[in-house]
Specification:
5 helices, single chain, 5 strands, alpha+beta, 5-stranded mixed β-sheet, about 140 residues
Length: about 140
């Protein structure tokens, strides 16, 4: 994991708060965890504002969440397990303390399932008392070409 000094330097360069730069750094590692593991990589498509920023527009707005489309059905239990595995993989690789703080079924209609997860993390700023959180939205109703 990079140190707080590096987060401060990047924040000063960008004219942004430490929490924005830290969240962006943490999102990068979470993405690594999500798309390194074959089960998640093979059944998801990364979308939304964070995807636009990471893939196409480096100067696009900083995002606070990840949006993912499921390309095949998965149960809530399976998704929770896969997200926990992704958190463990990222933590082992970079040292950021990830944990699945909350998982909810937002919509439970066949073929239109939607889930949301909140992942707590202790990044370079080491927010221990009240860990920062990332939101991950997973939907099964988007059409992928």
């Amino acid at each position: 994991m990079i140190g707080l000094t590096e987060i401060r330097r990047k924040a000063a360069e960008a004219g942004l708060g430490l929490e924005v730069i830290e969240r962006d750094y943490v999102l990068n590692w979470l993405l690594w965890g999500l798309f390194t593991l074959p089960p998640l990589r093979e059944c998801t498509v990364f979308k939304g504002g964070t995807a636009l920023r990471k893939a196409y527009f480096a100067d696009y707005r900083f995002s606070q969440d990840l949006d993912v489309t499921l390309t095949r059905p998965a149960s809530a239990e399976t998704l929770q397990a896969m997200l926990s595995d992704a958190c463990r993989a990222a933590m082992a690789e970079c040292g950021i303390g990830f944990s699945l703080a909350k998982f909810a079924i937002e919509r439970d209609e066949a073929g239109e399932e939607a889930f949301s997860a909140r992942l707590a993390y202790a990044g370079p700023r080491q927010q221990q008392r009240e860990p920062a959180r990332l939101k991950v939205d997973l939907t099964a109703y988007d059409v992928c070409c």
